[in-house]
Amino acid sequence: MPPPGLVDMLAPSLSAGGLLIGAEIGPRYYTDVVGRVGASPQAVLRPRSTTEVSRILAACHAEGVPVAIQGGMTGLVCGALPRASEIVLSLERMNRIEAIDVNAATATVEAGAILQMLQERVETLGLSFPLDLGARGSCTIGGNIATNAGGNRVIRYGMMRELVLGLEVVLADGTVIENLRKYLKNNTGFDVKQYFIGSEGTLGVVTRAVLRLFPSPAARAVACCSLSSFANVVALLDLARRRLGGELTAFEVMWQSYFSRATALPHVKPVLPTDRAFYVIVEASGVDAANSLYRFENMLGHAHETTMIDDAVIAKSEAEATSIWRIRDASVEVHAMIRPAIGFDVSLAIDRMEDFAVRADAVARALDPRCGVIVFGHLGDGNLHVGAQHTDGPADIGKELEQRIYDLVAACGGSISAEHGIGISKRPYLRHSRTDAEIALMRAIKKAIDPKGILNPGRIFEIAE
Amino acid sequence: MPPPGLVDMLAPSLSAGGLLIGAEIGPRYYTDVVGRVGASPQAVLRPRSTTEVSRILAACHAEGVPVAIQGGMTGLVCGALPRASEIVLSLERMNRIEAIDVNAATATVEAGAILQMLQERVETLGLSFPLDLGARGSCTIGGNIATNAGGNRVIRYGMMRELVLGLEVVLADGTVIENLRKYLKNNTGFDVKQYFIGSEGTLGVVTRAVLRLFPSPAARAVACCSLSSFANVVALLDLARRRLGGELTAFEVMWQSYFSRATALPHVKPVLPTDRAFYVIVEASGVDAANSLYRFENMLGHAHETTMIDDAVIAKSEAEATSIWRIRDASVEVHAMIRPAIGFDVSLAIDRMEDFAVRADAVARALDPRCGVIVFGHLGDGNLHVGAQHTDGPADIGKELEQRIYDLVAACGGSISAEHGIGISKRPYLRHSRTDAEIALMRAIKKAIDPKGILNPGRIFEIAE
Questions:
Q1: Within a 10 A sphere around the Cβ of B211, how many other Cβ atoms?
Q2: A75 touches chain B (CB under 8 A)
Q3: Residue B193 clears pLDDT 70, i.e. is over it
Q4: Could you give the C-alpha distances from A25 to A21, A32, A46, A67, A238, in angstroms and in order?
Q5: Which residues of B touch A242 (CB under 8 A)?
């Protein structure tokens, strides 16, 4: 519980509506996108400016009050859910797109800006912000930065880390690190912004950012293909890389377990029969519409002639492209269809993936023969998402399943979190993917930057163990 | 001077030839690529393995002995030149390319591997390692990582930071951080490898790395164009970006001051008359040879018809492409032609560049009307290299010129180091590009990771000031 004086002390330094207490605090501040519930916080602070964030943190630092930092609440590892005794710092009112510099191809935004708003805004200027994920309508740029978000176009544009040119961050003690530069290249000492990207709010509060933009592609070609074997999926990726080069912007794989469920949803169009083992969405974004489409169709034609793919639907309009993407964007709904289930987000070498999926399914069925897994993911990035179903039995069945799948990930040489982060929920498994020396180094950094441990404490690791 | 016992203590833990003392220490260990000379070290340690590096650092840490870390000695900011009392740790004997994984498109290399060796080795497997810079024949991968090297293809592939998947680093106390992962995505806690990339050897010694490879492009199209105005240069960049998209792999600009000198060198072919104000080398790398070349020629044809460019030479063979690139690669020789001179490596917004170049020239001429500047650089990355000539007069003329140009960079909102780093020589100007809060954060990180300050001390900043 925060010292009674703290909230009173902060209130005057916040603009109107900046402080919520008691019944003013809605479930939004302690519930996440999949319905998990955290502790009900004593206070929610909603600053409107970097100066306000700085004042809040300076006061919390002085008093040793722990702070849970919140963006769009779409994280999947419980990182933004308040824990007992934490107050909430929500960036939701710092949501402006401050400037688009068309010549420099950069956007300067506040941390609370919604991803989709930015995408749509730059689109009107003939530009594109390529980060894209299912939560685009509610996730925030600050959250994307704090978690180093990935998504569907990493194969071409990299993760959020690659899209950030400059950052403004407030440290635990209220110090403002202003590094809002527009250059791609700035080798002037340590690149301090890297510390904060992907550190899940444990080292500082991102308040503003300068992001890279790209020219809008003249044309987008999208297809959904069915394939009979995983070897064919790998061959198609190789073909697409060689034939499309820098125009390949997405390569999403779906096992039948995922595809058949997704296309059964009322708002999703079943574009292909569901009797094949694998499905792939390929997307190419080109600078020359006719030429790009020709190349794309040619590539798929070759894949069909050589029986690499069984069937394919090529979108003939932007509406059809959206309709194909809806299959992949339905992942939250598909997960909900197999509840109770546990979600995994793993990196694996491509040549371990098929085996991993088979063994993960066996792990789930060993616990209950009626269960199993759904699998899909970003093949080109080596990233699979897995939903593992378990029975409604005793709670420790879920724990047991989780443990066994993570052990399998480690046995297959994989990473236990490709893009979702560690937060609270994956913390017990951090050592499956990181050495003791790495974790000791993380702790040393945390201690150097947030010595009192007030920022998102206990996310990634407990400070003292 | 190292404690007399240290060298004796370390010698047995190093393999044969691992220790050089006295007259065995050639000028290679205290001279850099442009002929600057550091202190003559008491000892040079040349480990063959990570274990040896770890033993060396543990001993140096215990005794508080400062260490200068060396790769190919091609840095331009005196970062690798030993300072008084430092011993040298050279990675030159850890130069193996350990493995190329064709399926995963990764290379695992030791830090002392030479860039060009790696480029050529992966080329034989149909792959490409895209980092490329003039020093390719002697610079090392470890040095490229420690300095976050840039070069000619950043516009398409990013800087060295974007090309590193995994890293092995030895900390000051001998702790080995092994993070040799092959995944693109690994959001499992802090991405600790980012701390070391670009930190100029002040936080740890890079010993091995896993690097990203790309499919070899089927075709490379290269042209050199002459242009009459900077506005046309900017228009050509925009056109190339829009028409070539992800196939644009280099866009190098040269002011006449650079081009006329470079093409006067005996080994460089004067491909175009030298009477224009600007010259650009454009390179496109495509997956489909005929198609890519058609697009490239079409783009240049349009640029010519609209008088954006005055003239252009398109390479008709790989030999002609190399011959065009030789103009750009001659930068060290061109600098030598105007000696005494000071080299600058700055980032600027594109719309400030022309003005900056004019004013930099005026700054040099104000000190001596016979002097001036040569200008060239990576336009697409916002990065210019400038050589500013000064007279052979009193030494403080050079200092005065340096100060005035850096003041101009700051006045134009630029960065004082785009890709060369800070090292020793740019340290006095760090505050032109970084705030006090950023520098304080850098110091806190340095203190957390290298508490005794033994690794490359005084590079970037003095630990105590």
A1: 27
A2: no
A3: yes
A4: 6, 14, 11, 16, 51
A5: 215, 287
DSSP state of A354: H
Min Cα separation A332/chain B (Å):
20
Q: What is the pLDDT of residue A2?
A: 57
B418/A195 touch (CB, cutoff 8 Å), yes or no? no
User: What long-range pairs does B267-271 form, CB within 8 A, spacing at least 24?
Assistant: B267/B326, B267/B330, B268/B326, B268/B327, B268/B330, B269/B323, B269/B326, B269/B327, B271/B224, B271/B313, B271/B323, B271/B324, B271/B327
DSSP state of A73: S
Which chain A residue has the Cα nearest residue B242?
Answer: A287
pLDDT tier at A108, thresholds 50, 70, 90: very high
Cα–Cα distance for residue pair B93/A156, rounded to 1 Å: 36
Q: How far apart are the first and last CA of chain B?
A: 22
pLDDT digits (tens, 9 = 90+) for A365-420: 999 898 999 999 999 889 999 999 988 777 788 999 999 999 999 999 999 999 99
Phi and psi dihedrals of A116, rounded to 5? -65, -35
pLDDT at site A3: 64
B435 CB within 8 Å of a chain A CB: yes
Chain B stretch 177-196, residues whose beta carbon is closer than 8 A to a beta carbon of chain A: 177-179, 181-192, 194-195
| pLDDT, tens only, A137-166 | 999 999 999 999 999 899 999 999 999 999
- C-alpha B33/C-alpha B72 separation (Å) is 9
pTM of the predicted model, to two decimals?
0.95
Contact B174, B57 (CB under 8 A): yes
Residue B352 forms contact with A (CB below 8 Å) = no
**Is A250 near chain B, with CB under 8 Å?**
no
Is there a cis peptide before residue A340, judged by omega within 30 degrees of 0?
Answer: yes
pLDDT digits (tens, 9 = 90+) for A266-319: 999 999 999 999 999 999 998 778 888 888 999 999 999 999 999 999 999 999
CA distance B101 to B118: 13
How near does any CA of chain A get to the CA of B261, in Å?
Answer: 27
**CB distance from B99 to chain A under 8 Å?**
no
A223 touches chain B (CB under 8 A): no
Return the minimum-mean-pLDDT range out of A60-69, B259-268, B334-343.
B334-343
Of the candidates B158, B197, B287, the beta carbon closest to that of A162 is on B158
User: Cα–Cα distance between A230 and B225 in angstroms, integer?
Assistant: 47
Show residues of chain B in contact with A103, CB under 8 Å.
349-351
Asked if B82 reaches chain A (Cβ–Cβ under 8 Å), the answer is no
Contact A87/A67 with Cβ under 8 angstroms? yes
